[in-house]
Specification:
This protein is 12% helix and 32% strand. By secondary structure, it is mainly beta. It has two domains: 85 residues, Rossmann fold, CATH 3.40.50.20; 111 residues, Hexapeptide repeat proteins (UDP N-Acetylglucosamine Acyltransferase, domain 1). It has an eight-stranded mixed beta sheet, covered by helices on one side. The radius of gyration is 17 Å and the shape is globular. It comes from Jeotgalibacillus campisalis. This is PglD N-terminal domain-containing protein.
Protein backbone atom coordinates (compact mmCIF):
# COMPACT_ATOMS: atom_id res chain seq x y z
CA UNK A 1 0.00 0.00 0.00
CA UNK A 2 1.26 3.42 -0.96
CA UNK A 3 0.14 5.06 2.28
CA UNK A 4 1.85 2.53 4.57
CA UNK A 5 4.37 4.06 6.95
CA UNK A 6 7.61 2.27 7.62
CA UNK A 7 8.34 1.01 11.12
CA UNK A 8 11.63 0.18 12.79
CA UNK A 9 11.15 -2.45 15.49
CA UNK A 10 13.60 -2.28 18.40
CA UNK A 11 14.04 -5.72 19.98
CA UNK A 12 13.62 -9.19 18.51
CA UNK A 13 12.67 -11.48 21.37
CA UNK A 14 9.40 -13.22 22.21
CA UNK A 15 7.43 -10.03 22.86
CA UNK A 16 8.74 -8.61 19.60
CA UNK A 17 7.36 -11.59 17.70
CA UNK A 18 3.90 -10.67 18.98
CA UNK A 19 4.44 -7.02 18.05
CA UNK A 20 5.51 -8.04 14.56
CA UNK A 21 2.31 -10.06 14.13
CA UNK A 22 0.32 -7.10 15.41
CA UNK A 23 1.96 -4.80 12.85
CA UNK A 24 1.17 -7.22 10.04
CA UNK A 25 -2.49 -7.25 11.16
CA UNK A 26 -2.75 -3.49 11.57
CA UNK A 27 -3.44 -0.97 8.88
CA UNK A 28 -0.98 1.67 7.81
CA UNK A 29 2.37 0.20 8.84
CA UNK A 30 4.97 -2.15 7.41
CA UNK A 31 8.28 -3.23 8.93
CA UNK A 32 11.40 -1.61 7.49
CA UNK A 33 13.94 -2.95 10.00
CA UNK A 34 14.29 -5.07 13.14
CA UNK A 35 17.20 -4.11 15.37
CA UNK A 36 18.55 -6.15 18.27
CA UNK A 37 22.01 -6.46 19.80
CA UNK A 38 21.84 -10.23 19.32
CA UNK A 39 22.82 -9.44 15.73
CA UNK A 40 26.50 -8.61 15.35
CA UNK A 41 26.21 -7.56 11.72
CA UNK A 42 23.59 -6.34 9.27
CA UNK A 43 21.65 -8.54 6.86
CA UNK A 44 18.43 -8.56 4.83
CA UNK A 45 15.77 -11.25 5.22
CA UNK A 46 12.41 -11.23 3.41
CA UNK A 47 12.98 -7.60 2.52
CA UNK A 48 13.52 -6.53 6.15
CA UNK A 49 16.80 -5.08 7.43
CA UNK A 50 18.24 -6.80 10.53
CA UNK A 51 21.16 -5.55 12.59
CA UNK A 52 22.37 -4.28 15.97
CA UNK A 53 20.65 -1.30 17.58
CA UNK A 54 23.55 1.00 16.74
CA UNK A 55 22.45 0.70 13.08
CA UNK A 56 19.38 2.84 13.84
CA UNK A 57 20.90 6.05 12.52
CA UNK A 58 21.84 4.28 9.29
CA UNK A 59 18.37 2.91 8.53
CA UNK A 60 15.98 5.57 9.79
CA UNK A 61 14.28 7.52 7.01
CA UNK A 62 12.06 10.58 6.78
CA UNK A 63 8.59 9.60 7.96
CA UNK A 64 9.78 6.38 9.60
CA UNK A 65 8.31 5.51 13.00
CA UNK A 66 9.73 3.39 15.82
CA UNK A 67 8.32 0.91 18.29
CA UNK A 68 10.14 -0.54 21.31
CA UNK A 69 9.17 -4.23 21.22
CA UNK A 70 10.50 -5.20 24.65
CA UNK A 71 8.27 -6.70 27.34
CA UNK A 72 10.35 -5.73 30.37
CA UNK A 73 9.24 -2.32 31.62
CA UNK A 74 12.64 -1.25 32.93
CA UNK A 75 14.49 -2.49 29.83
CA UNK A 76 11.96 -0.70 27.61
CA UNK A 77 12.57 2.57 29.47
CA UNK A 78 16.33 2.11 29.31
CA UNK A 79 16.12 1.54 25.56
CA UNK A 80 14.11 4.71 24.99
CA UNK A 81 16.74 6.63 26.94
CA UNK A 82 19.59 4.91 25.11
CA UNK A 83 18.46 5.70 21.57
CA UNK A 84 17.38 9.22 22.46
CA UNK A 85 14.84 9.74 19.69
CA UNK A 86 12.11 12.43 19.84
CA UNK A 87 8.82 11.28 21.33
CA UNK A 88 6.88 11.98 18.14
CA UNK A 89 8.89 9.36 16.23
CA UNK A 90 7.26 6.55 18.22
CA UNK A 91 4.20 4.87 16.74
CA UNK A 92 1.08 3.91 18.66
CA UNK A 93 -0.06 0.53 17.36
CA UNK A 94 -3.55 -0.88 17.92
CA UNK A 95 -4.73 -4.32 16.83
CA UNK A 96 -7.92 -4.17 14.73
CA UNK A 97 -9.81 -6.36 17.22
CA UNK A 98 -9.12 -3.99 20.14
CA UNK A 99 -11.62 -1.33 21.18
CA UNK A 100 -10.20 2.09 22.03
CA UNK A 101 -12.67 4.83 22.87
CA UNK A 102 -12.38 8.05 20.91
CA UNK A 103 -12.50 9.73 24.31
CA UNK A 104 -9.37 7.90 25.53
CA UNK A 105 -5.89 9.40 25.19
CA UNK A 106 -2.92 7.21 24.21
CA UNK A 107 0.61 8.60 24.29
CA UNK A 108 3.33 7.76 21.78
CA UNK A 109 4.79 4.26 21.75
CA UNK A 110 1.77 2.54 23.30
CA UNK A 111 0.86 -0.91 21.97
CA UNK A 112 -2.68 -2.30 22.27
CA UNK A 113 -2.96 -6.06 21.72
CA UNK A 114 -5.84 -8.18 20.34
CA UNK A 115 -9.24 -7.97 22.08
CA UNK A 116 -8.10 -5.35 24.58
CA UNK A 117 -10.53 -2.62 25.67
CA UNK A 118 -9.71 0.98 26.61
CA UNK A 119 -12.80 2.93 27.58
CA UNK A 120 -13.76 6.60 27.69
CA UNK A 121 -11.62 9.01 29.67
CA UNK A 122 -8.70 6.61 30.07
CA UNK A 123 -5.24 8.14 29.74
CA UNK A 124 -2.42 5.78 28.72
CA UNK A 125 1.19 6.89 29.15
CA UNK A 126 4.00 6.51 26.64
CA UNK A 127 5.46 3.08 25.86
CA UNK A 128 2.76 1.25 27.79
CA UNK A 129 1.62 -2.26 26.81
CA UNK A 130 -2.10 -3.04 26.95
CA UNK A 131 -1.90 -6.78 26.42
CA UNK A 132 -4.32 -9.30 24.92
CA UNK A 133 -7.83 -9.34 26.36
CA UNK A 134 -7.13 -6.81 29.09
CA UNK A 135 -9.61 -4.09 30.08
CA UNK A 136 -8.78 -0.51 31.06
CA UNK A 137 -12.06 1.02 32.16
CA UNK A 138 -13.26 4.61 32.12
CA UNK A 139 -11.14 7.37 33.64
CA UNK A 140 -8.15 5.18 34.45
CA UNK A 141 -4.75 6.89 34.37
CA UNK A 142 -1.62 4.92 33.49
CA UNK A 143 1.85 6.46 33.66
CA UNK A 144 4.53 5.58 31.07
CA UNK A 145 6.12 2.12 30.83
CA UNK A 146 3.24 0.23 32.45
CA UNK A 147 2.42 -3.34 31.36
CA UNK A 148 -1.21 -4.43 31.70
CA UNK A 149 -0.82 -8.16 31.16
CA UNK A 150 -3.27 -10.51 29.38
CA UNK A 151 -6.74 -10.86 30.85
CA UNK A 152 -6.33 -8.27 33.60
CA UNK A 153 -9.01 -5.71 34.46
CA UNK A 154 -8.61 -2.15 35.69
CA UNK A 155 -12.07 -0.97 36.73
CA UNK A 156 -13.04 2.71 36.74
CA UNK A 157 -10.72 5.53 37.82
CA UNK A 158 -7.73 3.36 38.71
CA UNK A 159 -4.34 5.12 38.77
CA UNK A 160 -1.15 3.19 37.95
CA UNK A 161 2.36 4.60 38.44
CA UNK A 162 5.31 4.42 36.08
CA UNK A 163 6.78 1.03 35.28
CA UNK A 164 4.21 -1.02 37.18
CA UNK A 165 3.22 -4.50 36.03
CA UNK A 166 -0.39 -5.64 36.38
CA UNK A 167 0.06 -9.39 35.90
CA UNK A 168 -2.23 -11.77 34.03
CA UNK A 169 -5.79 -12.08 35.31
CA UNK A 170 -5.48 -9.46 38.05
CA UNK A 171 -8.46 -7.27 38.94
CA UNK A 172 -8.21 -3.75 40.40
CA UNK A 173 -11.37 -2.31 41.98
CA UNK A 174 -12.51 1.26 41.23
CA UNK A 175 -10.68 4.30 42.48
CA UNK A 176 -7.51 2.74 43.86
CA UNK A 177 -3.94 3.72 43.01
CA UNK A 178 -0.86 1.58 42.44
CA UNK A 179 2.52 3.22 42.97
CA UNK A 180 5.42 3.25 40.55
CA UNK A 181 7.48 0.15 39.76
CA UNK A 182 5.19 -2.14 41.71
CA UNK A 183 3.99 -5.60 40.69
CA UNK A 184 0.46 -6.93 41.06
CA UNK A 185 0.70 -10.72 40.95
CA UNK A 186 -1.27 -12.91 38.56
CA UNK A 187 -4.88 -13.43 39.61
CA UNK A 188 -4.77 -10.90 42.43
CA UNK A 189 -7.89 -8.97 43.40
CA UNK A 190 -6.71 -5.56 44.58
CA UNK A 191 -9.20 -3.74 46.82
CA UNK A 192 -6.86 -1.18 48.41
CA UNK A 193 -4.18 1.13 47.07
CA UNK A 194 -0.62 -0.21 46.84
CA UNK A 195 2.45 2.01 47.43
CA UNK A 196 5.44 2.25 45.11
CA UNK A 197 7.98 -0.58 44.91
CA UNK A 198 5.71 -3.25 46.37
CA UNK A 199 4.47 -6.65 45.27
CA UNK A 200 0.85 -7.47 46.09
CA UNK A 201 -0.75 -10.90 45.67
CA UNK A 202 -3.84 -12.86 46.67
CA UNK A 203 -7.61 -12.41 46.92
CA UNK A 204 -8.01 -9.95 48.44
CA UNK A 205 -4.49 -8.81 47.62
CA UNK A 206 -1.98 -8.11 50.35
CA UNK A 207 1.48 -6.60 50.11
CA UNK A 208 3.90 -9.50 50.35
CA UNK A 209 7.23 -7.74 49.91
CA UNK A 210 9.07 -4.60 48.98
CA UNK A 211 10.84 -4.82 45.64
CA UNK A 212 13.85 -2.93 44.31
CA UNK A 213 13.68 -0.01 41.94
CA UNK A 214 12.52 -1.27 38.55
CA UNK A 215 12.69 -4.91 39.66
CA UNK A 216 10.71 -7.04 37.23
CA UNK A 217 8.92 -10.22 38.20
CA UNK A 218 8.65 -12.72 35.36
Amino acid sequence: MQDERKLIVIGDGGHSSVIQDLISSSRGYSILAILDDRYSSRFIHSGIFFGPIDELAAVIQKGTKLVIAIGSNDTRKNMVQRIGMPADLYATIIHPSAFVSKKALLDNGTVVMPNAVINAGAVIGAHTIINSGSIVEHDCSLAPYVHVCPGSTLTGAVSVGEGTQISAGATLVPGISIGEWSVIAAGAVVTKSVPAFRMAAGCPAKIIKRIGSRERIL
